[in-house]
């Protein structure tokens, strides 16, 4: 059986001179005034150090509030740094904005890295159609949960119908209705749906 000496548990890690100097240098930026801890920022002067429990409220006020305007990472960081400080501030702001639902929905085109190519359109109406489904949505009185949308690429004419499910026979019935009214297309483009 191995014996453990008491000094192994009680010994403190010895700090090097370099570590001590770094610690002293970092603490010089902080001051304590009237019960408030302040951080002396290089460009913004003295700003308040924020507790962990206050961070979400500040991020919401500086980014998600209707008056904040859902600014990007750089502008929100600048706005927060003008008044507040906490360790890891920039990483927290980046994380908060990347998880912001409204920003994800509205800024999706800015993040697209692939180049967009227009689809060449045929010269006659209802020769090339685009088909897509919307849903599932709230169930209607007829038990419909999806919307089938068929658009003519030449005239931009939409044909829309609610359907109960996205099974092929419901979609086929919708396409047949459109074909009976407008004629047979040479192409039907879908979003890779089955």
Automatic annotation (TrEMBL):
Q: Which SUPFAM superfamilies match?
A: Ribonuclease H-like
Q: Where is the composition biased (Basic residues)?
A: 12-22
Pfam families under this entry?
Answer: Integrase_H2C2
Q: Where is the composition biased (Basic and acidic residues)?
A: 1-11
Disordered: annotated segments: 1-22
One GO molecular function term of this record is:
nucleic acid binding
> InterPro entries annotated for this entry?
Integrase_cat-core, Integrase_H2C2, Retrovirus_Pol_polyprotein, RNaseH-like_sf, RNaseH_sf
What biological processes does GO assign it? DNA integration
Q: Which domain of life is it from?
A: Eukaryota
Ranges for domain Integrase catalytic come to 121-194
Q: Which PANTHER family match?
A: PROTEIN CBG26694 (PTHR37984), PROTEIN NYNRIN-LIKE (PTHR37984:SF5)
Query: What's the protein here called?
Result: Integrase catalytic domain-containing protein
């Amino acid at each position: 059986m191995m014996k453990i000496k008491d000094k192994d548990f009680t010994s403190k890690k010895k700090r090097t001179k370099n570590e001590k100097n770094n610690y002293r240098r970092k603490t010089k930026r902080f001051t304590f005034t009237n019960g408030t801890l302040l951080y002396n920022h290089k460009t913004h002067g003295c700003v308040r150090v924020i507790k962990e429990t206050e961070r979400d409220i500040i991020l919401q006020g500086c980014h998600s509030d209707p008056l904040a305007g859902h600014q990007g990472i750089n502008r929100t960081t600048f706005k927060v740094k003008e008044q507040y400080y906490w360790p890891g501030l920039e990483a927290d702001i980046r994380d908060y904005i990347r998880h912001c639902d409204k920003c994800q929905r509205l800024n999706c085109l800015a993040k697209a890295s692939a180049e967009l190519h227009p689809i060449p359109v045929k010269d006659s109406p209802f020769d090339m159609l685009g088909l897509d489904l919307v849903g599932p949505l709230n169930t209607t009185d007829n038990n419909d949960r999806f919307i089938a949308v068929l658009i003519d690429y030449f005239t931009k004419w939409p044909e829309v119908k609610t359907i109960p499910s996205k099974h092929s026979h419901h979609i086929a019935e919708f396409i047949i209705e459109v074909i009976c009214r407008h004629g047979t297309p040479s192409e039907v483009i879908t979003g890779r749906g089955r």
